[in-house]
Every structure is written in structure tokens, then in C-alpha cells.
Amino acid sequence: MTLQSLPGLAHRFSNPKMLETALTHRSFGKSNNERLEFLGDAVLNMVVAELIYQHRPDVSEGDLSRLRARIVRGKTLASIARRLDLGKHIILGAGEQHSGGQRRESILANTLEAVIGAVYLDGGFAESHEVIRSLCLPLIEALPDAEALKDAKTKLQEWLQAQGLSLPDYQLIAEQGEDHAKQFTVACIVEGLAGDRFVGTASSLRKAEKLAASQALVVLSGELNPVPGDN
Amino acid sequence: MTLQSLPGLAHRFSNPKMLETALTHRSFGKSNNERLEFLGDAVLNMVVAELIYQHRPDVSEGDLSRLRARIVRGKTLASIARRLDLGKHIILGAGEQHSGGQRRESILANTLEAVIGAVYLDGGFAESHEVIRSLCLPLIEALPDAEALKDAKTKLQEWLQAQGLSLPDYQLIAEQGEDHAKQFTVACIVEGLAGDRFVGTASSLRKAEKLAASQALVVLSGELNPVPGDN
């Protein structure tokens, strides 16, 4: 029995083979959903861009990007895929099936993108737009303020610019631990504030920089809780 | 006089204000093309993805991405913008105008994206699809073989996998010179080929890794000219 649609998906395939391909993981064989995933990723990125563009007429380009990233990231797409119960329909190779591939975040997210690519090819742009709108609009409406999505480094930079100060410099000052458990210590240095050096230590450079920036922001701006939503 | 279209652009604006906004750089003022650029970038990425998907039925997802990157990169978009003589119509602040902003690659590329975003909003998806198709299809048809676009690291990885060998490891072994003229030396190490260590030195880690991979590929595969088109 070939599926013509999925419960919760606002499109009925005129070519059900297309849906089958979209549901087939590369572990199953050579005819799989990887090309459709490439296409669906592009369609999804575009339609979500447009929905957010229309929904947030006042936010800047940078904020539009950050808001979109919240929707098109693997974690969010996997949650949508779970809502559609996509895992039940994914066609996996035996190995992946036994190791629980149908529940893995990356497989769920990629399969959802492939299904969107298949809807676009089977039903056209307007149909894929409608499918994406119905899946994503509730999430877009629930997005936090763009301000809350900025990470500490962005916020620090903006705060310094507003004060007419120079941009911060991040320097790796220590690296400790074995390869599998490295800890990086980074200093955030602001020219003109020579006495102040803010330090963060974490398991990656990026995280350590964010911690250092966050510390600088707290001290310099006097804010006590400057980075909500930074994850 | 408000422009309703641009020579070479297959769309006549029913709302010419939209085209004007698309042509306005942020140096000119608060009402500028940055949001339209965000939208146009997404539309362009999607339509180019679809055109390449259709045009290259046999290439893998990774190759589709590499091929698309060739079209949507700043250099290519700026060349299209020059063909449309876009620089003549870009509205810049006085400072940018005097420093030749209308000829700068990034400004040309971003303005082209904004114009595409404006076409989408003014004329709908089919119209923007046609505009992008007419601008990009000749370039898509002229794209090289996907194989030629792979960089040395990708090629080395694929070659090692085909031989059943483990993936290479890249290690920074030296860093020399002042901050403004740093030279990085990277070793490419392949487990199981203990005697062989391939080294590259360049002004960035990425370039040094590519050189080391390229050297490994030459020696291991016996190919003499393994990385054409790697730029």
C-alpha cells in the first residue's frame, strides 16, 4: 500500500512515489531522500523567511535571520516531524532501524525537509507554501522578541557601540585538560577600559567567548540578567 | 522620475516604490534595502536550488550544494548585477558614493538580492522564478562538473574512504609571524599510514589544511594534478 499523504500534512500526492522517496533514508539504499532534502531545505528556508518578513515588519535584517534560525534548526524541525508522527513512516535500513534511527533528531528533521521538497515538486509552490505555513505559523507567532535571541557577544557589541566605545577583542588565555575534555579560557578585552578584563571558561571557544562577553555586559552595563534566551 | 523596471530585468513593477527601496543602500538612510535583501537572498537560494536540482538529475546532495554555492556567492551575483548595470541605479549615501560604493562587489550583490526580494513581493513567486531563471540559467548551464568543485580535503576524504582507510586528522604544528602576517603550518595525518605526514603552510588554517590535504592526495593516490577548480 503506497501512502498518498500523511496525517496532518495539508497535501495529497498525485505521485505517491514522490512521497515514498521523501521518506526513504540513505541507509535503505541508493534511491533515497537526500536530493529532495536539499530542495526542501531551500523551500522551507524561503517560505519561513517570507512568513517572518511579513509577520515582523519592524525588525532588522539581522533579527530576521536570528528569528528564522530558531524555526529551521534541527531541534524545531524534529519537533514538527514528531507532531506529524513522521518516525512511523520513515523507511530505514535494518541497522538504523534497530538503533532507533526513526527517533533521531537529525533523521526526523532531514526527512521533514525531504517531504517539503516532495510537496513542492508534486504540488507546486503555492501548495508547499500552504503546507509550511500551516506547520510553522504557530511557532513563528510564538517566537520571542528578536532582542531576546541575541547572544551575549552581539549584545555587548551593540552596547559598546551605543556608548561610542571600541569593539571588544577576544583572546584565548588558557587551554587545559585532555583532548576529550578540553577547557578554554577566553578574555574579553575592551580598549579604553584598560583596567577591565572579563574572563570565561567553557568546553568550546565559542561558549567561553559568550561567557566572557556576558560577564563584561553585566559589569559594564550594570544589568543583572543580560542574556535571557541565549541558547 | 520613478523607475518601473531595469533594463534586462524581466519584471515591470506595479509598485515602483518597492523597486526604489530595493535600490536604496543603508548608507542613504533608515528606509533601505536590508530587509528586502534578506528576503531576496532566500528566494534566490531556493530558485537556484530548484534549477540546479532539475538541471543535474544525477548529482548528490553535497554536489548540489557546491554547485549552488558557485552561483549565489557574492562574486557571481556582482557579475550579474554589472550585467544589469545596477551600479548606476543604486541609491547611496554621499560617503559611499564618493568612495565608489556603486562598484563594490558586496553592495552590487546585496542590491541584486534586494531587487529579487522586491520582484517576489511585487509580482509573486512565478514572476521572481522567471527573473531568476533568465539571469542564472546560462551560468547554471556553464557550471563545471561537480567533481571539479570539490576541495582537496573533500577529495582526500573520499579517496581514503574508497580505500577503506580512516579519515585524516589535521593538526596545527606551527604558527609563525606577527599578527598581521601569520603563517600556519598544518599536518595532515592518516591513521594506518604512520610513516606519512603531509604538511601545508599558509596564511589561514583553512588554506594550510587544503595544502596539506592536496599534498597527501598527490602522494597517496599518485595523481599529479588532483585539485583543479579548487578556489
Number of strands of chain A: 3
Q: Label the CATH architecture of the largest domain in chain A.
A: Orthogonal Bundle
Query: Biggest interface: chains and residue counts?
Result: A-B, 21 and 21 residues
Radius of gyration of chain A (Å)? 22 Å
Pick out its properties.
10 helices; mainly alpha; homodimer; 3-stranded antiparallel β-sheet; elongated; Ribonuclease iii, N-terminal Endonuclease Domain, Chain A; 231 residues; 2 domains; Double Stranded RNA Binding Domain
Write structural notes for this entry.
Two copies of one chain form a homodimer. Chain A is mainly alpha-helical and 231 residues long. Chain A folds into two domains: 131 residues, Ribonuclease III domain (Ribonuclease iii, N-terminal Endonuclease Domain, Chain A, Orthogonal Bundle), CATH 1.10.1520.10; 72 residues, Double Stranded RNA Binding Domain, CATH 3.30.160.20. In chain A, 54% of the residues lie in helices and 9% in strands. The first copy, chain A, contains ten helices and three strands. A three-stranded antiparallel beta sheet of chain A has the order 1-2-3. In chain A, helix 4 crosses helix 6 and helix 9 packs parallel to helix 10. Chain A is elongated, with a radius of gyration of 22 Å. The C terminus of chain A is likely disordered. Chains A and B meet through helix 2, helix 3 and helix 7 of A and helix 2, helix 3 and helix 7 of B.
